[in-house]
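Moderator note: this is an archived Q&A kept for reference. The question asked for a predicted structure of one protein chain; the sequence and the answer are reproduced below.
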Amino acid sequence: MADKFRSIVFDQSRCLGCTHCMRKCPTQAIRVRDGKAYVNYDRCISCGNCVRACPSHAITTRFDTFDILNGYKYKVALMPSVFYAQFPHINEPELVLNSLHNIGFDYVFEVARAADMLSLLKREMFIIGDVKTPVISTVCPACVELILTKYQCLRDNLIDDLPPLLLSAKMARDEVKKLTGLKDKDIGVFYLSPCPAKVRAIKSGSYSQTGDLNGAIAVSEVVKKLNLVDIKDVVIKDEIKASQMGIAWSTSGGEASNLPNIRQLAADGIDNVVSILRELEDGKLSDIDFVELHACPGGCVGGVFNVVNTFVAKSKIHSLRRTVLQNKTNTTDKIDKPISYYKIPWKWQTTDLYTLDKKLPVALQKMADVEKILKKLPRKDCGICGSPTCRALAEDIVQGKATESMCLVNRYFDENNKTD
């Protein structure tokens, strides 16, 4: 995992060692040593929480540039609905949709069209009833990664439908090949990403397993590019084909709202997601049928690559849904391919990153050592030592990555007792 694409990068020259990022990391992947923050990329799920937390902008993100388009004869943009929300002053969404033709894309495919199909598929799935509840959505790759590494007992609850991003790539390729007659190698499919988690998933994570996606460009970069052209001079060639069902997926609770008469739950923001996963792990939410999780506050509208305030973007999405519903532009009203077309071609694989050793006897001994060390620590979880919690420090000590002297609280009391 450490050799995989890193969508989160730490700039040590800017780091102040303030521990803000360490405290906000849901997987305890970050440590502060010698006044600088370091990340264990094996544990990083690219949720972007550290990016939001860093006051010195020492944490940056990686994604593809527009140069990547040059390697393909035909360029396809997979446009998420959140992209509409980056232009709250434009009341004609078709202008936003077609503007992408002006900056190098030959074909624009709305990711919400795939979400439409998945909404219909989920309705059918619950009607048939052949599911293990609570079913957990896979729309957010950061949440999926969190489950596969830290809450592994919930793996079988993950739905086996393709996430809308992957399904849209598959659908777009099919349409373009039929339209142009080109081969796969000539067609470049690029996602306009609102978050680093999806960039990582596309570049080296689970999304790279299908081969339908060629890259990911940050929404913010696309908006900058469009600022160089007058969006109001765009020629309208394509109309919105997605329905309000699929557009709803970009906000927290939108996916679940398409499942009437189903006991559902939606949580957004990584801290809230962790809270829900703990309750699911403990079996406290057995009466829930469907769980929708988003690492970003508000859903995809809260991604760190977006340029518009989350609440403004959410308002714009609601307005867009009403517009699409009033114009009755829903062209997705039935599942037109075999069910297998919409399913992931792999099984979700867990990765055990939190055991202290691969050998069980050694791991058990280290666990006992952690408990002994923990009894000596103040359990204040202050983070001054550079580890997020006292338990994390104890684990670091056992693994030879820290020493007991790093606990400044204990050192303070020890020194004062010696003075007395």
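Archived answer notes: Residues 66-342 form one domain.
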